[in-house]
Amino acid sequence: MTAFSKWAITLLMGATIFRVQTILFLPQVEMFGGIAPDGWFGPWLSDTIIGLILPVMIYLFWTRRSIAVWGVLVAYNAVGAFDYSQGLITQLISPMPVEMASAVTVYLGIGLFMVFQLTALGLLFRRDVIAGFSGWPESKRALT
Prior knowledge:
0% strand; 6 helices
């Protein structure tokens, strides 16, 4: 795996750490007496969980090499990107109150971080990255 791939994946995944702050938004949903539509409960809860798992994923990425770890990283980034898409859909169906954030801010913020997650996912499918996790000998890497 090239140094570029390793650092790019780390930075792209690491940038999504901001999703953990959504734990602070949970009390703002209507069911808890807040101003945000209840539809935001699911995306904010999953953001919190995915954000809390991020340090473990980055640790695994830097310290472990196996196809199982690669699969976990692929799944993590795919679920993360899907979660961002759910945030975009939630904004469309149950817009966040402007007192919390403007629609433009929500769409741009979620969209940008979804692109980060999708880019990290794409980089995980590079041959050099897969080869780094699979333990293929250098001679086989050149053939694939």
